[in-house]
Amino acid sequence: MTSVPDRSRVRLPGISSRAYEHPADRSALVALRKLSGFDTLLRRLASLFNDRSLRLMFLASAVRANEQQFPQIYQMLLDGCYIMDLPVVPELYISQNPLVNAMTLGTDKPFIVITTGMVDLMDAEELRFVVGHELGHALSGHAVYRTMLFHLINLAARIAWLPVVLPARGLIWALEEWYRKSELSCDRAGLLAGQDVEAARRALMKTAGGHRLAEFSHDAFHQQAREYDAVPDVREGLLKLLQLQGNTHPFAVIRFAELDRWAAEGDYREILAGHYARREDDPDASPADEFKAAYRSYSESWNRSQDPLIGAARVVAETAVGTGQRLFRGPRGNGGSRGGGGSSPSDDDS
Fold first, then answer.
1. pTM score, two decimals?
2. How far is residue 340's CA from residue 252's CA, in Å, rounded to a whole number?
């Protein structure tokens, strides 16, 4: 079922999730999709039991949006699917919960759950951004790969007492970093679905400070992001790293600044002009090229940052990107890398 949006927006036929994914998220997803058959197996296994259990729980305890129940939010869902050209409209449930939250669950047939806390907090255009964010998770297939990585994290936790405890902890940190970047990806998807930059800004500020918009300042919130980035010494930089442990979402000021930058300087306007990656080309995506793009993205972020610990982060990321390139390079150096010997993550193909 499709629906023409209630106001003029640019439709994005055949858009690939690669068009809006953060490079660090995109590189991981492209690489995982190359593990032929594994994601399909995981999707089928999850749909047999866990997916069914979750859907039944919300079918019994929440309100499913449709033409009769929460019709305005349901229309936002149809609009978002029309704009993003989703092949299937996910089910949408409104769950009584004062916590401000929204999530996309299920692997074979993803569905969306939005709490009443979120519905009550957001106005119509802000809620459209939230729905678009969740549609981004569905189109990217994040649920499939998050489930895969969830099992890897559990495995790492079980062997934490073994001598490999440090590599296991490093794996968990890396997976949490991917989670955070996947949230930045879907903030972009939310903006593409709603195509209202101001509404996206308001939604992100409200998640940090509540509904009193008259008390907020776009410029002051940006200043908070700059102050958070430019901590005065290494001690605070270390505290920032420690505070990220266990967090699967970026902090509010980071999400706000990143989306604002993408809207102003990134691919947002190019996508609306029709210049974007298509789904039909997804099988040809090169993991090696995407790892290089991820490294370039991190490099640009480091160049902007004034955090004194950024040098340490650079070493970790260079090692991770280099390892990823070697893992997914073809037998004779195919997949976007030069044949023969290895190359540094920042090398570009001629």
1. 0.77
2. 44
